[in-house]
Design brief:
The chain is α/β, with parallel strands linked by helices and 347 residues long. The protein is globular, with a radius of gyration of 19 Å. The strands form two sheets. Strands 1, 2, 3, 4, 5 and 6 form a six-stranded mixed beta sheet that branches. A six-stranded parallel beta sheet has the order 9-8-7-10-11-12, sandwiched between helices. The longest helix has 21 residues.
């Protein structure tokens, strides 16, 4: 497999394969860019169908982190880690220490944190062997609530821009994925008066949403065709594709999942269909904003983190307005804005 010829390879500075026979660790760390500072991005633990799928994911995610950190105004580059395998079978303290050693060997070029199937407790184990980790309890902690807050504010911005109102009362939102961030987002939407339609692979969490949030539950395949104002993808990536776009009735896509577009061309497809897309790495930046303050030299401050997360609203508004003026897809415009910030050294 010629990595340099892959579509998702974007002049990444470094791609490291990590393995440890004793613990079963198989991982990939991708450092996309350190132009603005050390690469920062979480690590996810996932049972990929093959190594090629893991490589594609880590390449896309790490590039997204570069753009995410730039658009969030952080003095950080972009990186990501993926651990390959079933976390239910493979998780162990020794495995996370082995991963921590791999991170440590990068000498501070990459800071890791929790992501899918990894907890703050797991990161505490990683921290036993390396200082290049964030999202620790007693410091910035779980980034999920900050991701949910930023996504909620991003939905408000999209609704304001597309529908002309900031009031979410009565706004219909279809949420795909009720993990910790997705469920927290639903709680905020429910409190604001939004009407929720939800789906997930976990029936227990669906029952909880129906009871606590008065949510309507639909099947995984039916979430796209719901008659709603907003589709919020909050599970894994690539849910915006040819098949789903054809079914969408929503006029806004705004959710916390990474890599929501299966291919770059789907950005244009959404524009042609009149759907406003909140670029994923802009709207879901709350978590990295929070953990970034743990990486910075000054002491972590939750109040400061919250204030920076609140800036996501205006950042998205700027993207929407620029895209409208240029008659270009929002994702393309956000990419251009991020590249300009990086080229200007973060200014």
């Amino acid at each position: 497999m010629a990595i340099f010829d892959l579509v998702d390879f974007d002049n990444h500075e470094q791609v490291v394969y990590c393995s440890d026979d004793a613990t079963g660790l198989k991982a990939i760390i991708a450092v996309h860019s350190t132009a603005l500072g050390p690469a920062a991005g979480g690590c996810r633990f996932w049972d990929y169908v093959n190594d090629e799928a893991a490589l594609k994911d880590v390449l896309r995610l790490s590039k997204g982190m570069t753009y995410k950190n730039a658009m969030a105004g952080l003095k950080l580059g972009g990186g990501k880690g993926v651990i390959i395998g079933n976390p239910k079978n493979l998780k162990s303290d020794d495995l996370f220490k082995a991963f921590g050693n791999a991170v440590n060997n990068l000498g501070g070029r990459y800071y890791t944190a929790e992501d899918v199937n990894i907890t703050t407790g797991d990161m505490a184990v990683v921290n036993q062997v390396t200082d290049f980790v964030s999202g620790l309890e007693g410091k910035s902690g779980n980034p999920g609530p900050f991701t949910a807050l930023g996504t909620f504010l991003g939905i408000k911005a999209a609704v304001k821009f597309k529908l002309g109102t900031e009031d979410l009362n009565g706004i219909k939102v279809a949420v795909q994925g009720l993990g910790s961030v997705g469920y927290s987002l639903c709680e905020k939407l429910h409190a604001a008066g939004a009407k929720l339609t939800v789906t997930d692979i976990n029936q227990q969490i669906l029952d909880k949403a129906a009871t606590e949030l008065n949510a309507t539950v639909v099947s995984l395949d039916d979430i796209y065709s719901q008659d709603v104002d907003v589709y919020a993808p909050c599970a894994l990536g690539a849910s915006i594709n040819d098949e789903s776009i054809a079914q969408l009735k929503a006029v806004i896509i705004a959710g916390c999942a990474n890599n929501q577009l299966e291919e770059a061309r789907h950005d244009q497809a959404l524009l042609e269909k009149g759907i406003l897309y909140a670029p994923d790495y802009v709207i879901n930046a709350g978590g990295i904003i929070n953990v970034a303050l743990e990486i910075y030299p000054e002491p972590y401050c939750a109040e400061k983190a919250t204030g920076l997360v609140e800036n996501i609203y205006q950042t998205l508004m700027s993207v929407f307005e620029s895209a409208k003026d240029k008659k270009l897809p929002t994702g393309q415009v956000a990419d251009e804005m991020a590249r300009t910030i990086i080229a200007n050294g973060g200014k």
